[in-house]
Specification:
With 434 residues, the protein is mainly β. Helices cover 4% and strands 41% of the residues. The protein contains 2 helices and 29 strands. It is globular, with a radius of gyration of 21 Å.
Length: 434
């Protein structure tokens, strides 16, 4: 039995990632203070019957990201970021000096702590409101800030041999590149832009990326596969023959959607980042294998893609075509084929999901948190509701480290009061408040 279950009394908005930008004020200061006062009155950071503890409260919406080696979160409105390395406590600091002199909000962060972080922003629209400008920054281990691209929002994932991989389909073509470290030529295990389904390659749009230390890479998206009249939810797998000797020990977190904007150059953490937006040549590179997932004739909205190993990959989406309303759809890859994982019966769309190293799936739906041990039943996890009496919960992100370190980003609303909160299975010595 997973030790997380011992303290648990068992009793995850339409579409995925229904979030306000981090710069948005969630409530007036007076209303937020009322909710925060109720929070303080509820036995400090005690979670009651819940295994989760509040470790951060924010009056403004925040961006949350699980990365290799820890977690990161930030709010432009609060002027703060915070991160936790592995099992360590959250450390809150001011946003890096020089980051986004223009009004903006955080989109997300990617990379490897305590080394480099790649931070994506979205600037407030000017003129063409249909085009959101998304600059990309890199912060190194010493805190040095570099603006890498003026307008580029690729999918990014840590990969094998301490590399960071970028993929983009915003220019109607699949582009793949190692952005860290800088490489003059593509490595032999780089995923190639060609797919084994030519029809899919014509209109592919990617929304999720997960890469493994074995060099295998998985991507989630929509495309019109051969024999289909409309786009379907697909997973693409690249399994290069030339693999590193490193075992699959690094868990890859779910990645958010790529934007439709790539007017700037992609980048590398090296002396010459200006060539990163160039075309990917497929000379000798591994083509991608397209999997049209079972039971997905309708158009699904991607939520999460999580890879523990080449034979343990989880994909989560929301099906908006169901007669009863949007529903969570889960799929698992065993190294050979994809199978449907039955979701919990709460009639809610999925928001985010993650899997522990011992195979427990944590799923956040619109208003509930669920956990499933291997092939067992879904268990509804109590949230620390005693801290926020009569509040409505919205689950936004779920992230796991190892077998028992679970993080949840949620939004709690009571009347006119709203707070963004971050929960963790490990209690904090001191609650971070923004």
């Amino acid at each position: 039995m997973n030790k997380l279950l011992l303290p648990v009394l068992v009793t995850l908005a339409c579409g995925c990632g229904n979030k306000k930008p981090d710069g948005a004020e969630l409530a007036s200061s007076g209303a937020a203070s009322s909710l925060r006062s109720a929070s303080s009155a509820a036995h400090s950071t005690s979670a009651g019957s819940s295994p989760l503890h509040v470790v951060l409260e924010s009056k403004a919406a925040l961006a949350f990201a699980g990365v290799a080696g820890g977690v990161w979160m930030g709010s432009m409105a609060a002027g703060r970021t915070a991160q936790a390395l592995g099992a360590a406590e959250l450390e809150s600091v001011p946003i890096p000096e020089g980051l986004a002199p223009e009004p903006a909000h955080f989109v997300g962060a990617y990379g490897r702590l305590p080394h480099s972080l790649w931070i994506s922003l979205e600037l407030e629209a000017k003129g063409d409101k249909n085009h959101a400008v998304t600059p990309l920054y890199r912060v190194d281990a010493k805190g040095k800030l570099q603006r890498i691209a003026e307008d580029w929002r690729p999918l990014l994932s840590t990969w094998s041999k301490n590399r960071i991989l970028a993929m983009s389909t915003s220019s109607s073509r699949l582009k793949v590149k190692v952005v860290e470290p800088h490489m003059k030529d593509p490595p032999p295990d780089l995923p190639g832009p060609k797919l084994d389904d030519a029809s899919c390659a014509k209109d592919l749009k990617l929304f999720g990326l997960a890469a493994l230390p074995s060099s295998q890479v998985f991507a989630a998206g929509l495309c019109t596969v051969s024999g289909s009249a409309s786009p379907r939810y697909v997973i693409i797998r690249w399994a290069p023959e030339a693999r590193s000797s490193a075992p699959d020990q690094t868990v890859t977190k779910p990645q958010p959607s790529a934007s439709a904007s790539t007017t700037g150059t992609a980048a590398a953490a090296g002396p010459d980042p200006t060539d990163a937006g160039t075309e990917t040549h497929d000379d000798g590179l591994t083509p991608g294998t397209v999997f049209a997932l079972p039971g997905t004739a309708g158009r699904l909205s991607h939520c999460s893609l999580w890879a523990n190993a080449a034979n343990d990959v989880l994909a989560v989406a929301t099906d908006s075509s169901a007669k009863k309303g949007p529903l969570a759809r889960l799929f698992h890859f065993n190294g050979k084929e994809w199978a449907i994982v039955e979701p919990p019966l709460d009639q809610d769309p999925a928001q985010s999901a993650a899997e522990t190293t011992d195979g427990a799936i944590w799923l956040g739906t619109a208003h509930s948190l669920w956990m499933r041990l291997l092939a067992g039943d879904w268990l509804k996890i109590d949230l620390p509701t005693d801290r926020y009496p009569d509040a409505t919960w919205e689950l936004l992100d779920v992230f796991t480290q190892g077998s028992d370190d679970v993080w949840v980003h949620a939004r709690v609303t009571a009347k006119a009061s709203t707070l963004d909160v971050v929960l963790r299975t490990k209690a904090a010595r001191e609650l971070v408040r923004w």
